[in-house]
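Q: My collaborator sent me two sequences in one message, no labels, and asked for predicted structures for both. Can we handle them in order? The first one she listed is below.
A: Yes, handling them in the order given. First sequence, followed by its structure tokens:
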Amino acid sequence: MKKYAIFDLDDTLLDFSRGETEGITQIFQENGVTDIAPLMQTYLTINHDIWHQIEQGADRGPLLDTRFARTFATVGLTVDSIALEREYKAMLAHNYYTLPGASDLLSHLKQAGLTIIVATNGTKSVQESRLAGAGITPFFDQIFISEDVGYDKPDQRFFAPIFQAYPALTRANSLMIGDSLRSDILGARNAGLDNVWYNPRHTTNTSAVVPTYEAHAFTDLAQFLLA
């Protein structure tokens, strides 16, 4: 049995995609967009590129402040991108959706005596609000958020405060669990940690990043952690 479970949040425990879709749709509608689906795909592509730059060490603030301007520009609209970014973050802070079974998994792990740690990229105020609203904060022994740490996964420096807080944590007694090969799994590999790619949609891995394990359900995660 492992002693430490290190969890990503978005689309691993919290249903980020659902809240993201609802928030972006509302912003589009408020700004006169009626053909939502194609612009949503444009936004997701732009946002993916921005987060890739952030994960490579770029300054998050200026980049995130451009994503709505860039998106709306593709359909010939000019918007106050900074204001929309503030509105969107306020929406995200109230995205309390959890993935089905997440709370039960955390409760099971807690009862088994594991130390449960959050390791997430994102904005501190948003992520803490979402955890509290979802009612799962008490399950975690400590929470590490990239904005607070100063580095984003997959940078191995993101994990330095975790090792400092838990000097007994080793590759043998821990697992990093996340849905993103690019940030969670690569980050774990960079930090010398075994890992589980949480892949409930059975997505084909076409990248060069190879996880230690792959899980398609929370029952798989429980098995990897408690066996």
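Q: And the one she listed second?
A: Here it is, processed independently of the first:
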Amino acid sequence: MENQWLSHAKRLQAIASTGLHFCKDEFDRERYQEVADIAQAMLADLANVPIIRIKGLVSDFAKGYATPKVDVRGALIEDGKILLVRERSDGRWTLPGGFADIGRSASENVIRETHEEAGLRVSATRLYSVRHKAKQPYDPDARDFYKLFFLCERQDEMAPQAGLETSEVGFFPPDKLPDLSRGRVIESDIHAAFAFSNGHQQFATFD
């Protein structure tokens, strides 16, 4: 679970973003902008990064009602092993996935991401977990996310291959996982996929 001060700073940033979008009074705009500046300074201090990086993370700041982003991930299990991709950005491994694009359903986004990152055509068959990133032991993030995890089934016999954002692709047993990209996925996400696939869990988890 994320640091309480990180949660407070993110909430202040969201309030300022929504306020700047809707307010009409110039004095209120100044107040909301000051709240935004304070929140961004707090986030920069907590992350130990320049403020300019924090400002660049929220591309839709003050452009509407502030809401969490959506991250989708696909779990393809074959012969007791799960498909993982190695991210070029940090050299660590994760389930294929990423930001959900506007205009596609969550499952369509998973299908696209798996093809782009692992070279495989799959179908997204079942939703097995919905998580609030801030409530779980992922690496801290200045943004707020809902994470949707789907079980997938292969639709072709192509060999896996890395994409533009990935450097390697492989299948791993649950007891021999590689170094995970913990801002994207944690061990419990993978173990939940196996439990759901094996019928040990009948309903998607929401936490």
